[in-house]
């Protein structure tokens, strides 16, 4: 990724059937952190998020409230934007699948797929989950008392038999397996293996891509048969092409697509591999550069979600930890790609108190007040090479983690620098030293580097800390060295994190 100047980052587009909760924030904040990281390194970043606004589920939700589907999604997508703004999510475009350029792209792509012979007419019979908006095969659904249930929502599936159009995914079985097995697209690799085994066991079935209008009217009309709407998953996946300008500027699109990093939760892995890679192949496009998959946030082992009724509110989190930055930090710390992560106020409190108040926050307070007390805030360059070496090694490690998109490890490594520096001050006792300048300067440099490393995670608080150090945040890797600043003029000694009122 080092040589590319551009990076294209996407989150899934969310179903706006209710306000976003911590589960939505998990994916979106992780993607935002990576986007801010590349921006800090000087890349041109295009970061796409948005809402998935068609389909039977939203149609029914709107009917229940007595409004039109469009009025309903207008209201809900605005709420999503409001929450992303609260959480400091700096997207480049908020795409809505009701956007005109997207609807026109979907029609163009479906016409193209039809012309290329990848679409045919047929009849579909199967068990359908209206919450997932997808069919489940016999091997996938759960049976209780002879009734098939959705494995995600644990509610009965509906038996559906209807005329439809199919997309010839089966032709792309070998191609998808090759991407999964030989490529480095899916991260962590365990998920590539999971999908590859499933395809080898069950094959890659052709996918029904149309819904009769009498059942699903709220959708994009199938361009070659107006009795149907386009299946929402096809509509949704194509947002990534609209967002990168596939229909507008081919050259710019190719630059972005070559450098695409897509974030998803593991529940939508199948659609973002088997279906998505096939669809891209039909359009003669390569898979994304990286597909980063994370585990669920769970409450008592169940995936957090509206339909399971176990959501953690973003507002409650912000209120408890005093700022959206602290919430973003907690999300970064618990980020887990391989495994599910159980929601726990106890763990979140201890992360907040341990990492932010007692470690990082305390270090900032201590060193800045010493700099003011001993030097009136003016500290010229004088490097303590022993501590500087330790710090620079950790900085390199954190940068490597970031570049591998291991956010949790990058953050923990940044915190190790703060921890080492607190221990360094205890050992050196600069307040007793005859010449405390090397200790204080090196400690200030350590703070600056921790702060830079945490800047993508906590954009506001780190900016305020840099302001009190009177240091500008630049773009590029040069600033990540001890000795980069020739003179500090510390303005004030902030307390960036307040102790929790509870406990
Ligand atoms: Zn379901």
Q: State the helicity in percent bands.
A: 40-55%
Q: Mean pLDDT score, rounded? A: 95
Q: What small ligands are held by the chains?
A: zinc ion
Number of strands: 19
Spell out the CATH superfamily of the domain at 348-489.
Answer: Isoleucyl-tRNA Synthetase, Domain 1
What does this structure look like?
The strands form six sheets. The chain has a six-stranded parallel beta sheet, with helices on both faces. The protein has a four-stranded antiparallel beta sheet with strand order 5-4-8-10. The model has no long low-confidence stretch (mean pLDDT 95). Strand 15 and strand 16 form a beta hairpin. The chain has a domain of 142 residues: Isoleucyl-tRNA Synthetase, Domain 1. Helix 5 packs antiparallel against helix 6, helix 6 crosses helix 10 and helix 15 packs antiparallel against helix 16. It is elongated and about 85 Å long. With 503 residues, the protein is α/β, with parallel strands linked by helices. The structure holds zinc ion.
Spell out the blueprint of helices and strands:
Blueprint lengths: L5 E5 L11 H19 L3 E8 L4 H10 L3 H18 L6 E4 L3 H16 L3 E11 L4 E3 L5 E3 L2 E3 L8 E10 L5 H10 L3 E2 L1 H14 L4 E2 L1 E3 L15 E3 L1 H6 L1 H5 L6 H9 L1 E6 L3 H14 L7 E5 L2 E3 L2 E2 L10 H8 L2 H11 L6 E2 L2 H31 L2 E3 L4 H19 L3 H22 L8 H18 L4 H11 L17 E3 L14
Parallel strand pairs: 1-2, 1-13, 2-3, 9-14, 13-14, 15-17
Antiparallel strand pairs: 4-5, 4-8, 6-7, 8-10, 11-12, 15-16, 18-19
The structure holds zinc ion.
Short structural description:
By secondary structure, this protein is α/β, with parallel strands linked by helices. It has helices spanning 22-40, 56-65, 69-86, 100-115, 173-182, 189-202, 232-237, 239-243, 250-258, 269-282, 314-321, 324-334, 345-375, 385-403, 407-428, 437-454, 459-469; strands at 6-10, 44-51, 93-96, 119-129, 134-136, 142-144, 147-149, 158-167, 186-187, 207-208, 210-212, 228-230, 260-265, 290-294, 297-299, 302-303, 341-342, 378-380, 487-489. It has 17 helices and 19 strands.
